[in-house]
Amino acid sequence: MLTDSHCHLASRQFKEDIDAVIQRAVETGITRMVTIGTDPEDSSRCIDLANQHAAVYAAAGIHPCSVTDVTCDNWLKEIRVLAGEKKVAAIGEIGLDYFHPPPDGWSKENYRGRQGDFFRAQLELAAELELNVVIHQRDKGNECWQDIQRIMEPFHGRLRAVFHCFTHSWESAKPLINEGHLISFTGISTFKSAELIQQCALQATPDSFMLETDAPYLAPVPHRGKRCEPADTLHTAQFIAQLRGIPLKQLAGETERNAESFFRFNS
Asked: What is the DSSP string of 112-165?
């Protein structure tokens, strides 16, 4: 039993065969999938999929790269309503993205400021609703990482976060883990060039991480470069279990306990 803790099943890449994609995952042993929202419309589609498939849960939120596309004033109310749906297990995907350039008509300062405003508002909503959060953080340097930690500081003890697609060192992860947060590993961990991530996956404590695909992106070896599916969680799990020198069954049990605690599937 494994959980794909972060995938995008509402993606257009799955439009033609989503039922088959989910069925393949279940047959592979991926018994739970959390499909992550990137804006109100996408979050609504994620919830529809969760309501249609027993193995699927949803997260509702606005991705930092979507903040300039959201023009209505009541966007937070929309996310609040969506987050009240029974199978919504978290608020996300939220955070900061300093990797991509600002859209046309936006300065770097204004774009980052809007991301920060949306991030804070959704953290407040998550704390109020007693939901945990799925964090996106991507940068070309270290500014994004520093700003995320600064913005999250007032929420210490009020919510937990999973830092999805974690690509930093275990030394960077430890302060997050000590505050009750989690990290998660994608198929990138199977790439030959991913030595830093592999070292982190090797050193991480059993209670500190989950597994994810970020499907349809980041397919692991041996499917690198192809469309990623939740079933590919198994390849990442096998790789990390071998890396850590433990049976796959043990890794599955450890990561399942982390996923159940974080997403509270049965509550």
From this structure: HHHHHHHHHHHHHHHHHHT--EEEEEE-SSSHHHHHHHHHHGGGTTT--EEE-S
Residue 170 φ then ψ, to 5°:
-65, -30
Judged on CB neighbours under 10 Å (0-12, 13-18, 19+), 226 is exposed
Task: With H, G, I as helix, E, B as strand and everything else as coil, classify residue 83.
Answer: helix
Q: Please give the average per-residue pLDDT across 48-59, as a whole number.
A: 98
Q: Which of 130, 132, 67, 75 is nearest to 96 (CA)?
A: 67
**So what's the pLDDT on residue 266?**
75
Inter-residue contact 59 to 267 (CB < 8 Å) = no
Nearest in space to 259 (alpha carbons), one of 46, 49, 30: 30
pLDDT tens for 234-246 read: 999 999 999 999 9
Indicate the SS3 state at residue 258.
Answer: helix
Cis peptide before 216 (omega within 30 of 0): yes
